[in-house]
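Quick one, T. Sequence first:
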Amino acid sequence: MRRFYCNCGQEVFFDNLFCGACGHLLGFDPDTQTLLTLLPSDVAWQSASEPEKTFVLCEHREHELQCNWLLPAELQQTQCVSCAMTRTIPVLSSSLNWRRWRTLEAAKRRMLYGLVGLNLPLATRQGLVFDFLEDKRSNPSVLNEHVLSGHGQGVITINAAEADASYLEAAKEAMNEPYRTLLGHFRHEIGHFYWETLVKDSPKINPFRQLFGDEQQDYSRSLEEYYANGPDANWQANYISPYACAHPLEDWAETWAHYLLMMETLETALSYDLIAKQEQDRLFSNWLREWMQLVVVMNALSRSTGNTDAYPFVISPSVERKLEFIHDLLH
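Structure tokens:
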């Protein structure tokens, strides 16, 4: 994540609605990935630094959702590009679901920020929408017995309970995923979407299969075997996580999510002058070298605060080749 500053010079942050120093409204322009200081105009809001640009606020800014994304005034729409992608939300008669929805949308915006920075298309032939659903485990009044997070034909489904800290901790234990986060979950599911967009039915499919395996093998059976038997004993030699063993498409999604994690964290480190300036066309091996040096510092800082390692992963030569495939695909 880049660093942002109000026009008054105060440092401000990605989700801020107002500047804490001067009180000016702030809004995030997804097209330029800039947090803007806003000034009122006759019919809309204009950027303090570029007065010729006018915007309207997302309609979800004023209630508990607190979305600070902007829309170009000429579009004559009411929801920002992120909020407009959400097709289904939890039932809002429960105050708990307001908090869940806000948490889910905040994670989605953060994920979309990373995608835009990589010049990935958000609008494709099949579209992209999000369904945030409940099941009877968290709300006995709904019809769904069990909602599984996943992707299918441009629809990403997330169990709304993923926004609950207690659910997340239980899932970490049950799924053997100690690094599981809501943002990571979004990155994983969007990986399935981009596999269909960038790899499926493309010249990249054979190189993909050489690295990740044949995605045509029975998906349901593969997952049943994984949950029955667990990951391969030596999974770290070939996979970024235990769950990546389950099926080639899950290996792709886990590796894709990890690549997004790396790229955004490197951008943050660059913004805070923790690493040297990088060029977009640098070899992946150079990116990886920067990354491995950075995570040594991250883990040391985490241990100093009495916590476990911030980065408990091993990047084997096999995983490096998979990450490099994604890097080359995007660049």
